Amino acid sequence: METVRLDEAMPAARRNPSQKRSRERVERILAVATEIIAASGSEQMKMSEVAQKAGISIGSLYQYFPDKAAIIRTLAEHYNAQGRECICEALDAVSTPEELAQAFTGLVETYYAMFLAEPVMRDIWSGTQADKALNALDFEDVCANGATLAAAISRVTSGRDAQEIADSSLLIMHLGEATMRLAIQTDEEGGRRLVNRFTAMALREMLDR
């Protein structure tokens, strides 16, 4: 079985396609990989299967992705970029504590729905803590999202220490991802309770309630 070694770093990033045809080929490869992971999980995905379903030779596939770990990393980067865009869009517009509470609650609900609906996201993020390269990518993402949250908190509150806000924001974003991973491993009722409890705890910390 061809599997990703979780104790090894990810290989170098794929070749950056500059021509339209190359970009379309990469998009097709990633779409096929997404379908395979959704159906069978990343551990079952084989490069030969990706090439066959994408309609390209195995040699062409390796020109863009040295192995399947590089494909998984690219998909993780894609999901992280989508998440950061969503968070920035929601939080950059808030100007009152009430707006922040509403925006943050909406983000939590959106992320929880995505975790439940996206098997590929669940597959990738479930292995994040055990994989050094994905863990580093996740930490970078949490830091960026924490900075966005800290900026929003600073705008709508006063008299709070900037470092305290930054630390709290980083912890909230980290614990948010941990909550999602835990929630999807429990039954629906238990998962909902965990998500609701996290939201309440985070709002108290953010707004010093």
TrEMBL record:
Protein's UniProt keywords contain DNA-binding: yes
MF GO annotations: DNA-binding transcription factor activity; transcription cis-regulatory region binding
UniProt-listed InterPro entries: Homeodomain-like_sf (IPR009057), HTH-type_TetR-like_transc_reg (IPR050109), HTH_TetR (IPR001647), TetR_C_22 (IPR041674)
Domain of life from the UniProt record: Bacteria
Keywords carried by this UniProt record: DNA-binding
Disordered: annotated span: 1-22
Location of the HTH tetR-type domain: 23-83
Pfam families with a match to the protein in the record: TetR_C_22, TetR_N
Annotated region of DNA binding: 46-65
Protein name per Swiss-Prot or TrEMBL: TetR family transcriptional regulator
SUPFAM superfamilies: Homeodomain-like
Species for this entry: Nitratireductor indicus C115
